Amino acid sequence: MAEKKADAPPAAGMLWGGRFTGSNVSGNKLQMQYTDLTYDKALYKEDILGSIAFARANSKTGIISEDEFQAIECGLLQVMEEWKQETFVIMPNDEDIHTANERRLGEIIGKDTAGKLHTGRSRNEQVVCDMRMWLRDRIKEIDCQLVAFLKVIVARAESEIDYLMPGYTHSQRAQPVRWGHWLMAHAAAFRQDLERLRQVFERVNLSPLGCGALAGNPFRINRNAMAEELGFSGITFNSMNTSADRDFIIEFLTWNSIFTNHISRWAEDLILYGTSEFGFLRLADSYATGSSLMPNTFNLKKKNSDSLEILRGKSGRAFGQMAGLMMTMKGLPYCYAKDSQESWGPMLDSVEFVLDSLGIANGVITTLTVRPERMRAALDMTMLATDVAEWLVRKGVPFREAHHISGRIVALSENTEVSMDQLTLEQLQAIDSRFTADITAAFKYESSVEAKSAPGGTSRSAVLGQIQELRAILD
Question: What does the record list as GO biological process (predicted)?
């Protein structure tokens, strides 16, 4: 009878390998492709800083000595430098960023000391810590870019406040407004995005360290001290929830889907306003393209708004990332499951393209040329029909009756092909005897916009009020 061979040792470097034996302990190659460092190597800095904080906290409890901590800290800083210099060598069994860093630390300071780094810690809390640190720092970058974008919008709204243009409902010309009012309309949406982003930041910026795999830490570790060292504003509430939770990523993806929705609508307006049919503005050459076939596509008549179309297209992708991760997470039992790794890709990708989108949007609004003469030429006297009704209301006519009278004037103008402001007083009085000579005041675009002086309106004072209020937030 052949001698029975002992089971093969666990794969070198696998943190979980002690229980598992056999030559296939590291899994098949296809499986490993889903758990490599493609995504999480971007978080090497956060992983190392979190490990240093954890080791320091363990040294305070006496689990590791001060000398061991000093060796661990020094070794981890060397590992970080290798990542920075792009000299870090990834080995086949480096399952993730945590395994890679600890494996390399053991090569530098010895496996015995490096092996104490993970005392009382789980990768479940470690990965959440890395992601929270990375995301909160990216949110700060997004915040800065969004503020810069809003400042450009506000500056243009103020300097170009006297430009009048049609306002639209149902894509039909409705009432005259200021170009600055249109700018501030979109600024209002982006302001809410800024406020929401800062609320998301507060929920992202919580430390999970000290929660273990799911049940907590048994070594009296000081969670608050680690949180303070790493710049967190607090700690997570429950260890099981900490391991299971990816809401902080879903909430950011939800924010991104709302923000890119707003960017898309802003881009759509600009695309329309840049067409020959409108001609309200022109994009700078650097944010437009031509055609590979039609030679006329890079003149004033036809300039392709590719930059804005790219922004418009991103909104669908953003919503898909949010919905996809929510569908992944909805059926997972508590606490951790490998499915949660599907949060990596959407988080990294969404941050990248929201920063790029803000850069494009900022460039577009900074460089576009406005054509106020085309805006004013698009105004139509029928857009003042509401002003005629409001003139009658000031004379004591009930609004419903005034609305009907004004509608008859519009019909007369259309039937006679005479502009409303050119109708004679006799023609107006034939519709309603209460019209007097001062009705001419209702047929002025400037008077129309200035009448809308309530806060939030399109009068000069109302638009300047919006600008002042938003500037106070941005500054």
Answer: L-arginine biosynthetic process via ornithine
